Amino acid sequence: MRRSILAFVAVTLSLSAATAQADDHKLIVTADSDARAVLRSVPAEAATERFEMQLPDAAPVSYVGLTDGPVGGIVFQGGQLVGTLSRPQAEMFYACRGYATAQQRHWAQEGARWGESLLRMAQPATTVELAFSGMSTSRSLRAVLDNPALGQVQALVEMGTNPLKVVRALSKAAREQKRRDADENTARELGKLVPGDSEKRLVEVSPPEDLAFTGQGLVLAYPKHSVDFVVNGGRIEIMQQPSFLQLARTRPAVFYVPDVVWANCTPELWSGAAAAIASTGAAE
User: pTM of this prediction?
Assistant: First the structure.
């Protein structure tokens, strides 16, 4: 499954100066950078989340949260760089939306308000230079991935010299390889979707593995690929990775930040909570 998710998380891109300049450890984002290319260029261990959102009466918003360095997140609108969040701000933006989702009120239910607040809080920037350490954290995209080879390796180790176990293990390995290939193909097709695409097209790629109602629409979740698609009126409004629906049900502690006034976790007040964290240094 890890290879499947990585096909979606870290698509290999040929980036030109018109999009983003990157090497193994650095990424330079400019006013000419393409938002989707940047989101897919941040290494899985260096990203906490990424999403693309269609606002009702404005250009789409894109965002990538970061684990490395002083920049906590990068905000785009209409595919172009808008600005950045500080690390405390990004922590609270993540934690508060996770809190809302864990309270059985998926943050996408108020997605437009969250997106608008993100634009308000972004510090304007024309160039952002990122340096990646290669280290992962408990919130990184890499941390939510499973190792697809683990079961296969374990089976091969345990089969010993018993011929029957050899046959069974090799047969299991072949089935798992076929499943991984299918998962990778699904991940590639999911990765081609954009906000505004039809719900029908999404379901044709793959039926949802989990589902939640937002009051105005649906969250079609794909835990195998750790991605949520928020659908309203038959169209995709938000694409998010990792799946907050999945994390809220299986790992809610990932959203925890100490000394937070959780009542402030609303689209209008989350930034105030971030300021409080910054003043105490608790988010470092």
Answer: 0.79
